[in-house]
Amino acid sequence: MKGTVKIALAGEGGQGVQSVAGIMVEAANDEGREALYIPNFGVEQRGGVSLAFCQISDEKVGAPKFRDADLVIALSERAVRRTRQYVHKDTLFIYDSSMQGIEDELPRNAKKVLAIPALEIAKKELHPRVFNIIIMGAAIEATKIVEMEQAKKAVEKRLGYKFAQNPKLRELNFKALERGAELVKESLA
Amino acid sequence: MAEKPITDEKRVFMTGNEAVAWAALAAEAEIMYGYPITPQNEIMHYWTRLAPKYKRKFLQTEDEISAGFTTCGGVLAGKRAFTATAGPGNVLMQEAMSMAEMMRIPTVVVVQQRGGPSTATVIYSQQETTLTCFGGNGEGLRLVYSTSSHQELFDYTIKAFYMAWKYRFPTFVLGDGYQAKMRESLYLYNPIEKGMPLAESYPFLGQEGRPGVEREPSHLRNTYNTEEELYQIISGYVEDYERMIPEVVEYQVSDLEDAEIVVIAHGIVSRAAREAVKVLRQEGRKVGYFRPITLRPFPTGKLREIAPKAKKLVVAESAQGQLFKLVQEALYGETVPLEPYFKPGLGITGEELVEFLQSNFGQ
Amino acid sequence: MATVPKMPKSWRVETKPHKFCPGCGHGLVLKALGEAIDELDIQDRVVFGCDIGCSLLAWDFFNVDIVQTHHGRTTPVMVGVKRARPDRICIAYMGDGGGYAIGAQHLVNAATRNEKITAILVNNCNYGMTGGQMAPTTLPEMKTETTPYGRDVEETGYPTQGPEMVAAITREGAYTARGTVAKVRQLKNYLKKALQNQLEGKGFSFVEALSGCPTNWSTNAKATWAFLEENMTKYFKVGEVKVPVKEEE
Ligand SMILES: Cc1ncc(C[n+]2csc(CCOP(=O)(O)OP(=O)(O)O)c2C)c(N)n1
Ligand code: SF4
Ligand SMILES: [Mg+2]
């Protein structure tokens, strides 16, 4: 694996893309690694695709944005279309399997294209609110940017105040992380 | 005195705007004047939250013309005053900065460049290079630091106060929307504990003592009656400026020894350039890197030393040739070819620079 | 609010749904304006200028010619158009930051010169587009991104009373009023009178519209209306401030 892992996450506003990106880079930073995260922003982001660029490395990261992602996760149809440009021959492209009729839009030049049922699992097994945490689990499994334990610590750091009020939420979030990781592990096995 | 905002050096992970607010606190800036504009808003947001805790002040003005002139006023009153802006705000700020240039008022302005001309985008560009270096009806007698990382935003914001007051030229920290909004790690420290001197500020107006009796009154003027008079003043300023150059000019270089192609970039684009040089060196390409840190004054001497040894210089920037012009001027008379890579208002990635440089080696 | 509103004829259907946040007052002001334009039947003569601020999101809102200008500069651009083409109906549409802060000198001077244009200013107590900083209209004690501990009037002054100020500096023939998106019909009537005033070439016309910014106020629908109808109208009095002197007088 090369030095810097480049991840593009995209979804609709409200899908929690930016908070996942924020927690992931914080986890890496807390492990002493170098991380860089930049969200897309503009005057009309309400209603636009929410996009997060993350890079994690053992040395200082280069340019804040990149052309060739190692991992792309797209959570909506518009996100699939928007992120195709970051795909190249070594990219793992993950999208949520709840999207229907998206086949023609999927990138053809990726190393691998994976559909994972994150939304379904969030709704049926866990809670719709932890959809983005499942995605985070998947991203971590796919890139190994941080250990699962470190990821949990970062979630705890970010959401600890909520867990304090309702300890069940901790379990729910950790479960979501693990389920996300499993989804990728199963598909890549 | 209120407690120190930063005591021990610590590693943090934050946005560039937040880093600037901490730097201004660390440099013991006393007052910020400002007007909201994306992408610098959060400098004000952090400052307004932190400032009262450390007995610092803030004024939100009615626009950037006012923010620039109130900053001049704060400095004239003897305070380490600063403002921050971007894009069309930077345009308006130039009126006040012309006055600062003419009256040698050591203002500090942090610029987070966004797309232009006009309102354009709120995101990113390097199109305020010429404006920040030469804005106003003057000679560009300013100090402009173009940063490329959060550590540098912190370091050079602190330094800007010191240099502004030492040399009495308006001083700018030139960042951009990416630096403003991205998160990465840096070390915050207290410059005093590192043995770094604080800017020594003093009043230009409102000093103690009865004017005309106990001291000379301050009569600061900005208008001259004759061409000769003005010419003499400006010539004196230019002399001061030129004397300052060797003491302040800064640059960064790497892989120059045997470099056939040297890529030149400033600010955040220099990160893509370094990335590209690293990749290409691994491929055995003889490519080197030059980055001016001070854009005003420009590191002309160093560039003229490098240029004759290279076969080609590639200038990469998120603007249509604003850095290019500085390079051209510095290299007047040299024959080394210059290859432009211009992306006005658009970020430049390491990957694309690798490909562009490869194509320049001629595959 | 969720019902599908009937669109004014002058609206551009192709650009709907509009780009404002859900629950934003700008859409209601532009609805009232659209109806006023329809009722006066002036769509083919209107030139609409929008400021930089959330008003910029209206750059393709109507089936009329529109120019998006600079932050605070819409008034002079419309003055320029009107002076060059007096047969056009020129509307300058701006926020409270655009009109009372950065563009205040233009508002004051256009009013003083009694320019025959119509300025419409959306007062939402903050800088919406840039993420909720203090505006000249921010209420005392109100928290914003640049008044995180609440607006201190000792430090930053009291909220601008725009229509009252404009009324004070204009001559006979000027029209100034303050409406609210809580009363769209009344607001439409004010806008209609303002435009009528321009049509008749009487003088400067100015309407401020009290409006909600749920995104930066962090309010739900109920709290947005409560803030608008209680807090804002307590400070900013709704009604006509100055109407042209009647002929018979
Ligand atoms: C010269 C200049 N300064 C600052 C800005 C940044 N800016 C854009 S919109 C805005 C404020 C918008 O507030 P307001 O006018 O109240 O309109 P709203 O978004 O609330 O409707 C500011 C400060 C700019 N575009 N140009
Ligand atoms: S930020 Fe406020 S004013 Fe702007 S569109 Fe959203 S709700 Fe409306
Ligand atoms: Mg406003």
**Could you give the count of β-strands of chain A?**
6
Count helical runs of chain A: 6
CATH class of chain A: Alpha Beta
Give the count of structural domains of chain C. Answer: 1
Count of extended strands of chain C: 9
Enter the CATH topology name of chain A: Pyruvate-ferredoxin Oxidoreductase, domain 3
**What is the succession of H and E elements of chain A?**
EHEEEHEEHHHH
CATH architecture grouping of chain A: 3-Layer(aba) Sandwich
* Helical fraction of chain A: 40-55%
Approximate strand percentage of chain C: 15-25%
Shape of chain C: globular
Instruction: Give the low-pLDDT segments of chain A.
Output: none
Instruction: State the name of the first-level CATH class of chain C.
Output: Alpha Beta
Derived structural class of chain A: alpha/beta
Number of helices of chain C: 9
Largest interface: A-B, 22 and 26 residues
The CATH H-level superfamily of chain A is Pyruvate-ferredoxin oxidoreductase, PFOR, domain III
Query: Quaternary arrangement of the chains shown?
Result: heterotrimer
Q: Gap between N and C termini of chain C, in Å?
A: 43 Å
Protein described:
The complex is a heterotrimer of chains A (189), B (363) and C (249). Chain A has 189 residues and is of the alpha/beta class. Helices cover 42% and strands 20% of the residues of chain A. Chain A has one domain: Pyruvate-ferredoxin oxidoreductase, PFOR, domain III (Pyruvate-ferredoxin Oxidoreductase, domain 3, 3-Layer(aba) Sandwich), CATH 3.40.920. Chain A has a six-stranded mixed sheet, with helices on both faces. The mean pLDDT of chain B is 97. With 363 residues, chain B is of the alpha/beta class. Chain B has two domains: 10-188, Thiamin diphosphate (ThDP)-binding fold, Pyr/PP domains (Rossmann fold); 251-360, Rossmann fold (3-Layer(aba) Sandwich), CATH 3.40.50. The longest helix of chain B is centred in the middle third of the chain and has 22 residues, at 227-248. In chain C, 36% of the residues lie in helices and 17% in strands. The model of chain C has no long low-confidence stretch (mean pLDDT 96). Chains in contact: A-B, A-C, B-C. The interface between B and C is medium-sized, with 18 and 22 residues. Magnesium ion (MG) binds next to helix 3 and strand 5 of chain C.
